[in-house]
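User: Teach me something about this protein's shape.
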Amino acid sequence: MTLSEKLQNLRKAAGLSQEALAEQLGVTRQAVSKWETGEGKPDIDNLLPLAKLLHTTVDYLLDDAADAPRTEEPPTPPQTESVGHELWEQLKAFGRRWGWLGGYAIAIIGAVRLVTTLMVLFAGGSMLGGMGSMTHGDLAGMVTGFGLAYYAVAIIQILIYLAMIVGGLWLAKWLKRKYNS
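Assistant: First, the predicted structure itself:
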């Protein structure tokens, strides 16, 4: 099959008139007519756009021995959604496998904070009016410095850190049992 026959067949198969094809290529209708009658051939600059408009390849257009039209594969869009979905699935799998370590991390942070709060309260508290400045049975030391508010805040912190320790250990045990059994 010649180039002119291929052009005419592919144009009709694409549902384009000579005028519509010419307009999309930026040439005259007469130029397209000459290509289809064999009186002329498209310029090299028009071959790739022509092949794309007719959903074929330049190789097929130029190879007279090729009888079956080779269609150009439409470009596949980038798969950003599947990449994001795949990353999310990997993160979930990581969380299922190693999430229990997060529970231990919470417990360790709570324990470290508890120890530092107790150290400040008992050992370093003398500078802040804490228990280090109190004598046995002397309630006056409790109201010096920061007084009751200081101890109230310390007790709240201690309770929060104890909750972090217990909750972190419980979370680690629960996640390990749920996903690693």
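Now, about its shape. Confidence is low (pLDDT under 50) at residues 135-140. The longest helix spans residues 147-179. If you'd like, I can walk through any region in more detail.
User: That's plenty for now, thanks!
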